[in-house]
Amino acid sequence: MMYRSNWGTKKNQECILALDIYQSTFQKLLEQAVLPSPDSTSYTGAEWERAFDETMVYCQWDPDRSVNGNALPRAAIQIGLKGSTLRDFLDTGIGRIQDLTPQVRKWNEQRKRGAFSSRQLPAERLYPVQDRAIRKRLHMK
Predict the structure, then answer these.
(1) pTM (2 d.p.)
(2) Cα dihedral sign for 78, 81, 85, 91?
(3) What does the pLDDT look like over 61-91, one tens digit per residue?
(4) What is the C-alpha to C-alpha distance for residues 26 and 56, in angstroms, rounded to an integer?
């Protein structure tokens, strides 16, 4: 998120929050998610249109980036929510919210001076999605 928000400096993206969400909530979102373009291996055109129109959860893949903005050899998931799914997520899906804005500002200053190490960032771990149907539908390797 730091790359996409230009380290919290883009207009209307100045606040960086870390959300701890429940694993069961994330799993339910993946079960409902639909990619934003048709996929002949998962849907026919009409099936995708119906799924896309009916879903409250969208999923897309973007190139993941290093702290300096360089593309990494992996994709980052972006999940969009709407309607009752968004309301349910906000009401019951979040375990903790932490405001990282002051820390991100500090990291950005360090980064600009060449004094930043990515080891300072919160640890990231790949989330293991075991369900083969989800993996296939969302194009997970």
Answers:
(1) 0.84
(2) positive
(3) 998 888 888 899 988 899 999 999 999 999 9
(4) 14
